[in-house]
Amino acid sequence: MFERLDFLRDKANHLPLCPGVYQMKNKSGEIIYIGKAKVLKNRVTSYFHAVEAHNPKTYKLVSNIHDFDFIVTETELDALVLEASLIKLHSPKYNILLKDDKGFSYIRITGGDYPKIMHSFNKDDPFSTYIGPFTSGYTVKQTIEECNRIFMLPTCKKVFPRDFFKERPCLNHHIKRCMGVCQGKISPEEYKKTITEALSFIKSGSKESVEYLTREMNDAAENLDFERAAILRDRINAITRSAKTQSIQAQRDIDCDVFAVSQNTGLTSIAVVKYRGGKLIDKENFFVGDECENELIRSEFLLQYYSNGKEIPKNIYLDGDSEDNSLLEEYFRGICGHKVTITVPKRGEGLVLTTLAKSNADEYLSLKVGRTSREITALQDLQKLLGLPKTPVLIESYDISNMGEQTRVAGMITYKNGRPYKAGYRKFSIKDVVGVDDYGCMQEVIRRRFTHYLDGDESFSEMPDLILLDGGKGHVNAVKEVLDEMGIEVSLFGLVKDDKHRTRAISDGGGEIQINSNKSLFKLLTEIQDEVHRFSIDYQRKKHKQSQYELELTRVKGIGEKKALALLKKYKTKQAIREASVEELMETAKINRETAENLHLYIQEIF
């Protein structure tokens, strides 16, 4: 797979120590990745050293690189600008490609003397006018519903003036949700003026609409048109109430885009929430097919998102760090002509907005991968709490259970994507450790598990992202010795219980990390610890019953441990062995007829 690795390393080592852009190519000469570097040699050589340690996306990229090219630039900013333009030109396979999760939505204003404001997915009516496109259908529908309610516009299927006087006014008119156009008392001129006010509300937001309607109300009052002044007053009050109760309304008139990232199972969800004048005006969601470092994802995504001609606000909020924030700010300022600030809010309203965006990213990802947002959040919180290099998709947990020295076992369970993965469950009988020694038992189990892995055993072929031991720092330090000895690099922690046998904290071999304050994470870890304990206890009880069963069989003359074990493997229950004939016992245990007859008699009388 990496037959060109030596060639690529040698070529990379001869690159200049200056800024530039590099282009990775496959065997066909196709550009599969474009990147920029402050120092070309340092950046490109990093791809071809310690390849096994790369994240899955980078590992796959390197495995497909046949050659690379580069372009030297004067500054790092020049490299960033060139990178953006080349990505837009070539759309390389391994760069982040902006794939939205859905199509576009439009606000449709129908034709005629009495137009209606509706939602549409396409522009297929030549007699209608459209506002858009918008990427969030939900936001469009919510805006239209709010607009129709405030301005009391009809939402029925009637066509006016054709349907004047045909039916009594509907319930919406009686509860003051519709102005009652069907009664024929509203002229086209008056109606269109209301439509104009409604469209102004949609386009400019609540603040500008209130200012405009207030002027209109004052003019109507001065002209003694008190009926219209009262209608405008009610609309102003409705808009004000809507703004106050709207959960998507920012606390101040701010223009910003908010970005948040959620990762799981090799898939990344990126949510973009846009505020203008403090009002949420649009929401987008994108999926990236590979999982890699969040800092790199944010940097690459921002670069491509705004290079596609999107409006750049003065404030950009991120839910976490990204690479090259200052460089991106300078680049965006050159595009839009005004100062752009990229921040990661730690408190206040900015934190509230990024938290909302993160919830959106989690929810979209949960729908995509078939996991609940709580499960996804718990795994991400676990990664953050323990400082793991990636979201722990595959978690193994171990517990020792014993009933005296004769019945000592261990259970290994696997959680995949936050849920039990039964195909990854394994049982171990302790063979080498003498006496009651939990640390020694755990060392034996871990050594045997990873010996299978190193020997290429397919049933142990997956390397976990995280190992959790049922125990504290003593267990962690004991197992760490074995992993270091075998050259196995995997994140290792212990689950510490309180006096009531409930999960209390995580041990890293030194101190303890408290988890009680995070409900999702606490629930996940408690579930894992309870499950591995149940699994190991069940196996220990079964093993104890088998040992008692085996001991009873060896009381028959001519039946030793090996013959008793063969019988136990064949006849797993007492009922099954009672139903076995003398000939079947002879065949299974490889014994003569006299011994088989004595065994059969013993089984029938004693069992």
Walk me through this protein's architecture:
With 607 residues, this protein is an alpha+beta fold. The protein folds into five domains: 5-90, GIY-YIG endonuclease (3-Layer(aba) Sandwich); 105-245, no CATH class; 256-370, 2-Layer Sandwich (Nucleotidyltransferase, domain 5), CATH 3.30.420; 386-541, UvrC, RNAse H endonuclease domain (Nucleotidyltransferase, domain 5), CATH 3.30.420.340; 554-606, DNA polymerase, domain 1. The chain has helices spanning 5-13, 40-45, 56-63, 76-90, 137-150, 171-174, 188-204, 206-222, 226-245, 294-307, 325-336, 348-369, 373-386, 438-454, 473-486, 519-553, 561-570, 574-578, 582-589, 593-606; strands at 20-25, 31-37, 67-72, 105-109, 117-120, 129-134, 256-264, 267-276, 279-288, 315-318, 341-343, 394-402, 408-416, 419-420, 426-429, 466-470, 491-497, 503-507, 512-514. The strands form four sheets. Strands 12, 13, 14, 15, 16, 17, 18 and 19 form an eight-stranded mixed sheet that branches. A five-stranded mixed sheet has the order 9-8-7-10-11, sandwiched between helices. A three-stranded antiparallel sheet has the order 2-1-3. β17 (491-497) and β18 (503-507) form a beta hairpin. α16 (519-553) crosses α17 and α19 crosses α20. The longest helix is centred in the C-terminal third of the chain and has 35 residues, at 519-553. It is extended.
